[in-house]
Design a protein that fits this description.
This protein is mostly helical. The chain has one domain (about 10-115). It has four helices and two strands. It has a two-stranded antiparallel ribbon. Strand 1 (about 110) and strand 2 (about 115) form a beta hairpin. It is elongated. The mean pLDDT is about 75.
Length: about 120
């Protein structure tokens, strides 16, 4: 363990996490590309996870090498998700549409196959 340290101000950490959560909600409703929204949400989540790890897990007061070991999986996970985001942006969300809804919209239904 590191030397004695001053107790962190948990109220300020809570306020910071609350503000970051509000920013995340605001980002979702912004009229920007899904890719940018995804990247922004990942970066905000990384900041929030880092705050939790640094203050609630007391990694801020540990040796630097222990912090790197503890936080490196977060970076690897974020890079993996960012690498997979283009796959999400290029596909439409598909839902099953009932035959009655297709008939109402004027689409032809031939034995369960739509055209």
């Amino acid at each position: 363990m590191a030397s004695n340290h001053q107790a962190p101000n948990y109220n300020m950490v809570f306020i910071a996490l609350t503000i970051l959560t509000a920013v995340e909600i605001g980002v979702v409703f912004m009229p920007i590309s899904k890719i940018i929204v995804g990247i922004a949400l990942i970066l905000l989540a990384l900041v929030k996870a880092s705050l939790v790890a640094l203050y609630f897990m007391h990694l801020k007061y540990e040796k630097f090498a222990l912090g790197i070991v503890a936080l490196s999986p977060l970076l690897i996970c974020a890079l993996l998700i960012i690498g997979l985001l283009p796959d999400l942006a290029g596909t439409k969300h598909q839902t099953k549409v009932s035959a009655a809804a297709q008939v109402e919209s004027g689409e032809q239904v031939i034995s369960g196959v739509t055209e």
